[in-house]
Design brief:
Distance between the termini: 56 Å
CATH class: Alpha Beta
CATH superfamily: Aldolase class I
Order of helices and strands: EEHEHEHEHHEHEHEEEEEEHHHH
Radius of gyration: 22 Å
Bound molecules: S-adenosylmethionine, iron/sulfur cluster
Number of domains: 1
Strand order of the largest sheet: 1-13-12-11-2-3-4-5-6-7-10-9-8
Largest sheet: 13 strands, mixed
Number of helices: 11
Strand content: 15-25%
Shape: globular
């Protein structure tokens, strides 16, 4: 019989539990860099779009983003002290604007859960580009708190909004948000946002094959009939972000297939992109009553003109949605006592980081199957970095 001391103990590791993402220290540049108005990365792509995650918490548990079994009662969200303050976010955003960023998108987690978010919006709305123009300021939300908050967001200076909604059928939507949240509340939020002038509104629908593909046509009809051109419905391919959603290629409905489905009911014409680096391919209804967008991040990589950077809730900069590690900008904002770091020095650090950027994950994924074995470094989760 084996004695206690002969037993081999094999530690168990729950591979689905998200690890805290690692971070890369950013050296403090000796020399500052004044506003450049334009930074180009190693592949010549400019920095134009900054997505700012204001919380890693969410009141939904969408299976493709924060599966309930992983983000449960025991999951440790970031402590308050780790979050960037509104002053810190605004300081960074102003430095990014000085170096070419023209668009700010607040995201999360669910951004409307961050207390006093309107105050941050007011502060960001006051920023200007080096040419004196206001920035394009928007926000992505699950819509659950929108009815209550739309007017305050508008009053604070938010220009427009993107609402995520994955179906019109309550059973389907509730299965996807996994907290039993009703469709009607999100639709009311969209109506209120429209009424207070937060437009043009975009509605994002993530499509999972076999889960909500039967919602594609009802969603298209609903937004076309009720809003015409003032709401643009965008269909997003289910992506392999993070390491917890159990992503499988056979659950992706390629945009080409989705387009064929829509064309059975509607005549659609391809439209020109409205801005360089735009993620969605635009298709207009032939009778002029609005348009839809296709975001094909899996089947048609759009890394070639990707001009987006992402700032996590705790101040790490990610140069790609599929990155494993972020660059710790918060350390530059909170240096040791007596060692102030200027905006120009942070600008120089940013120029160095962006200048070395050569990310193009989706393009490489299309060319080969990326490593997903247990030795592959963990990708950062979508609710943490923002969409
Ligand atoms: N909570 C807000 C919301 O849902 O709109 C903002 C954050 S959420 C991470 C931003 C966007 O990412 C949403 O439109 C969501 O549908 C999308 N998203 C999350 N996980 C995704 C995945 N695995 N594939 C595609 N899109 C995803
Ligand atoms: Fe929350 Fe948005 Fe992720 Fe859904 S997609 S779990 S609403 S952060
Ligand atoms: Fe941009 Fe990375 Fe997405 Fe490519 S994979 S489009 S580089 S965020």
């Amino acid at each position: 019989m084996a004695r206690m001391s002969d037993r081999v103990v094999i530690p168990l590791l729950d591979e689905r539990k998200p690890a805290r993402p690692g971070s890369i220290a950013v050296p403090v540049p000796a020399q500052g860099l004044a506003a450049t108005g334009l930074l180009a990365d190693a592949l010549g792509r400019p920095l134009r779009d900054l997505r700012i995650s204001v919380t890693d918490r969410c009141n939904f548990r969408c299976s493709y983003c924060m599966p309930k079994e992983v983000f449960d009662h025991y999951h440790q969200f970031l402590p308050q002290a780790d979050l960037l303050s509104f002053e810190e976010i605004t300081r960074l955003a102003s430095i990014f604007a000085a170096h070419g960023v023209r668009k700010l998108r607040l995201t999360g987690g669910e951004p409307l859960l961050r207390r006093h978010l309107e105050r941050l919006i007011e502060m960001l709305a006051a920023l200007r580009t080096p040419e004196g123009e206001p920035l394009d300021l928007t926000l992505t939300t699950n819509g659950s708190l929108l009815t209550k908050k739309a007017q305050a967001l508008k009053d604070a200076g938010l220009q427009r909004i993107t609402v995520s909604l994955d179906g019109l059928d309550d059973a389907v939507f509730q299965r996807m948000n996994d907290v039993g949240f009703p469709v009607a509340e999100v639709l009311k939020g969209i109506e209120t946002a429209q009424a207070v002038g937060l437009g043009p509104i975009k509605v994002n629908m993530v499509v999972k094959r076999g889960v909500n593909e039967d919602q594609i046509l009802p969603m298209a009809r609903y937004f076309r009939d009720n809003y015409g051109g003032s709401v643009v419905l965008r269909f997003i391919e289910y992506m392999d972000v993070g390491a917890t959603n159990g992503w499988r290629m056979d659950e992706v409905l390629p945009s080409r297939e989705l387009l064929e489905l829509l064309r059975q009911d509607f005549e659609l014409l391809q439209l020109d992109p409205s801005a360089p680096g735009e993620t969605a391919e635009r298709w207009g209804y032939a009778d002029g009553r609005g348009e839809i967008g296709l975001i094909s991040s899996v089947t048609q990589a759009f890394c070639g003109d990707c001009n987006r950077a992402r700032l996590s809730t705790e101040g790490k900069l990610y140069t790609c949605l599929f990155a494993h590690q972020g660059h710790d900008l918060r350390a530059l904002l909170r240096p040791a006592a007596g060692a102030a770091i200027s905006d120009a020095q942070i600008g120089a650090a940013l120029a160095g980081l962006w200048g070395r950027r050569d990310d193009r994950y989706s393009q490489l994924r299309a060319a080969e199957t990326p490593s997903t074995g247990s030795d592959a470094p963990r990708r950062v989760e979508m609710h943490y970095i923002g969409g």
